Amino acid sequence: MENNNLLKVQNFSLSYRTRKGDVEAVNNISFELRKGETLAIVGESGCGKSSLARGLIRLFPRNIKRVDGKIILDGRDVLSLDEETFRKEVRWREISMVFQGAMNSLNPVLRVVFQVAEPLMVHFGMDRNSAFKRAKEILGLVGISSAFAERYPFELSGGMKQRVVIAMALITNPKLLLLDEPTSALDIITQENIMNLLKMLKKELNLTYIFITHDIALTSELADRMAVMYAGEIVEISPVEDFYRNPSHMYTKLLLDSVPTLRKDKNLKSIPGSPPSLIDPPSGCRFHPRCPSVMDICKVKEPPFYKIKEGHFAKCYLNEGR
Amino acid sequence: MNNELLRVEELKVWFDIKKGLFSKPVYVKAVDGVNFTLNAGESISLVGESGSGKTTLGKTILRLYKPTGGKIIFDGKDISDSDLKNMKWYRRETGLVQQDPFGALPPHFTIYRILEEPLIIHSIGNKSERRDMIYQALEEVRLTPVEDFAPKYPHMLSGGQMQRVVIARALIMRPKLVIADEPVSMLDASVRVEILELLRSMQDRHKTSLIYITHDLATVRMFTHWIFIMYAGEIVERALTKELLSNPLHPYTNALLNAIPEPNPENRNILKEVPPGEPPDLVNPPLGCRFAPRCSQAKDICSKERPPELEIKDKHWVRCWLYS
């Protein structure tokens, strides 16, 4: 293990209890993340990408059934900590998160500067004045002037609210920032503004991101590495260049074929069928019912990770003997 | 041209948000001076950010809103002022594909009943004829075997399947004009392409005219004949798809095209040039060009006088002082 590894996730699994049966939302996921690196996790809705993120920061819904594996942050297994220690020492101090559509969950009756400063007062016991001062600094960093800091959320536009939410996540100076669809509710030009901001913050603060999205074209704006999730599993993980040039899992290939591009002529294809139910996932490779080059072995035996090259792994039998 | 289906002239839709007995009314100028024509069998993509008035324009064309000013001429008939009671024929000639299939289908109706409803309202066919039409419609949107799907309720379908039902419902009357308002924005990436292809093939087959409303320029490329770019209640540029994409003129169109992420790993190392700020408030829109406050090429006149809409080239209109 390299020394500059910030995060190491080993055999992480997560299941929920529902009336119809247990849902294996995340199944046996392992990956590593270096400091300053951005990992993008892509997949269709219901593939478990948000569950994975919420698992990393340990915000489980009430119907959680089972959590397994290890999450090693800076050499410490944070999954084995008890809830109180995790809350005090890890959540928001070391790992922060920007939630999907979070700009709509700002408290409407509090000024934004207070909402940004609150974690400092709660987690660090800072007094009000210095917390507010620090909050204004961070708001300035994300492009909100101090005049706007004193306003209420309804006085801000969508893009500005999203900036406020990013400031909230950064105020405690976390090592790892989870971004769950940070721009999915924004207009395209505002979205690019936010992506520019995230790029700038990454450079200036040497932040480590896990960027979760379903928009594959957008990942290229931020990601150093890509992980493709399907039905609760990572099926391919690769440096971003290889993701576009040499996709090695059939699902990744089809996913890339379905991305419309503006400047190139391309025959768009869609993936037949829909993702499987995670209550009773398909045997073998979970993608085999939708895969156009399915073989007999895919139906019965779960494929191992094939190493395509350094740092590039794909869970697909088509790479056998390549 | 003689196969003109729809003509919109200086269309204005203003919503009053404050009306008092003595005070001056306050309006949101959601659509302000829109002109275009649409020929039978042709399709338009109406592209703009949220709040640009694209949905309002679509709904007004369907006469779900009453225009404040201007004209809508459909098939030679001026419908901008007609009484809603005399509009039943128009409902038959037009169809709507809503954005949210989960909210657009009545949950207590079966798929069969959902598709039969418009046929009953317009008293078309007898029971067995209607049945044939419904089965054919389901087959066209590839919800097969139709016998299995017809008795189902909406909640038993996936999002993509629901959207197919919405499309089938919009097209079962064989309307001359269909408006699709962000038909795929609620769906997963992998089914989006499929639904768009379906919509296009249906449009081809029945020679329907289509207005496709979207904020996603990346999907329009191979989809429609025309692209109209809307900003703050105005169409700032309109041209044939190829022409507009290869030769965008308006600074806003350029900014919009620039902002679309391309799957290229180099992107992460560069900052993009994006116009600062937000679209203007439509209660008090800027006096001159509405994009002027954010435009890097703005001149003096831009903030004083509204630019005229000019046909710069054959079938390429733009509303910008740079070209006047």
Task: Kindly describe this structure.
The complex is a heterodimer of chains A (322) and B (324). Chain A has 11 helices and 12 strands. Chain A has 322 residues and is of the alpha/beta class. Chain A has a single domain (5-94, 174-319), classed as P-loop containing nucleotide triphosphate hydrolases (Rossmann fold, 3-Layer(aba) Sandwich), CATH 3.40.50. In chain A, the strands form 2 sheets. Chain A has an 8-stranded mixed beta sheet with strand order 6-7-8-3-9-10-12-11, sandwiched between helices. The mean pLDDT of chain A is 89. Chain B has one domain (4-262, 271-323): P-loop containing nucleotide triphosphate hydrolases (Rossmann fold, 3-Layer(aba) Sandwich). Chain B has 10 helices and 12 strands. The A-B interface holds A 38, 44-45, 157, 159, 187-193, 195-196, 199-200, 214-224, 240-241, 243-244, 254-256, 258-263, 265, 268-271, 274 and B 49-50, 158, 160, 188-194, 197, 215-219, 221-222, 245, 255-268, 271-272, 274-276, 278.
Set out the fold topology:
The complex is a heterodimer of chains A (322) and B (324).
Chain A (H helix, E strand, L loop, with lengths): L4 E14 L2 E14 L3 E5 L6 H8 L7 E10 L2 E2 L5 H8 L4 E4 L13 H13 L3 H14 L4 H4 L8 H13 L5 E5 L7 H18 L2 E6 L2 H4 L5 E6 L2 E7 H6 L4 H8 L38 H5 L5 E4 L2 E3 L8
Parallel strand pairs in A: 3-8, 3-9, 6-7, 7-8
Antiparallel strand pairs in A: 1-2, 1-4, 4-5, 9-10, 10-12, 11-12
Helix pairs in contact in A: 3-4, 3-6, 4-6, 6-7
Chain B lengths: L3 E15 L7 E14 L3 E5 L6 H8 L7 E6 L2 E2 L9 H6 E4 L3 H4 L6 H11 L5 H14 L5 H4 L9 H13 L5 E5 L7 H18 L2 E6 L11 E6 L2 E7 H6 L4 H9 L50 E4 L2 E3 L6
Parallel strand pairs in B: 3-8, 3-9, 6-7, 7-8
Antiparallel strand pairs in B: 1-2, 1-4, 4-5, 9-10, 10-12, 11-12
Helix pairs in contact in B: 7-8
